[in-house]
Amino acid sequence: MQDQIINKVAQSGLITFNLENYYPQGERVLIDIKDVLFMGMILKEKDFRQWIKDQDWTQYQDAYVAVHCSVDAIIPTWAYMLVASKLAGIAKKIVFGDLKSLETSIWEEALVNIDVNQYKDQKMVVKGCSNLPVSEAAYLIITAKLTPVVSSLMFGEPCSTVPVYKAPKKAE
């Protein structure tokens, strides 16, 4: 009689959570105000308003847009407001900050309504390998949501996991 191959991963009761299933599709774009500054450090209202007027804002249709200034310059608040007023109704989302800030905001929105109670007292593994660019922010967000309800949380693949959290044993 031959030895039977047993799939211990299938018998482990691990539930895999794949962040790729929640990946928000859409182009990510950065608008850097520095490109419009006089001498790379001064915002001139007249020139800035002309730049706003000359832009083809439709190029941002359905895009996720981050707006910031990457140089040390004083940018009046109204300048960011002008950019936002042109993007409103065109872009999917507009945030103040760099592309990392944008990704964090996108993932917060994508994961906020997940009902984690369905994973109560379960052994979970958050899938590590992905074909899509899942940001570190997404892993932090889902960890914060899952930790209060799961019995254990791991990172990786069911066949090779890194322990992240184990709930304390309940007193009987």
Describe the protein in words.
With 172 residues, the protein is an alpha/beta fold. The chain folds into two domains: 76 residues, no CATH class; 64 residues, no CATH class. It contains five helices and seven strands. The strands form two sheets. The chain has a four-stranded mixed β-sheet with strand order 1-5-6-7. The chain has a three-stranded parallel β-sheet with strand order 2-3-4, with helices on both faces. Strand 6 and strand 7 form a beta hairpin.
Question: Keywords, please?
Answer:
2 domains; 7 strands; 172 residues; alpha/beta; four-stranded mixed β-sheet; 28% helix; three-stranded parallel β-sheet
Physical arrangement of strands within the biggest beta sheet: 1-5-6-7
State the shape.
elongated
* Unreliable sequence segments: 6-11
Radius of gyration: 23 Å
Give the topology string: H per helix, E per strand. Answer: HEEHEHEHEHEE
Number of helices: 5
Tell me how many strands there are. Answer: 7
The helix-and-strand class reads: alpha/beta
Helix content: 25-40%
The residue-averaged pLDDT reads: 91
| Proportion of beta-strand residues | 15-25%
Distance between the termini: 45 Å
- Overall number of domains: 2
Major sheet, described briefly? Answer: 4 strands, mixed
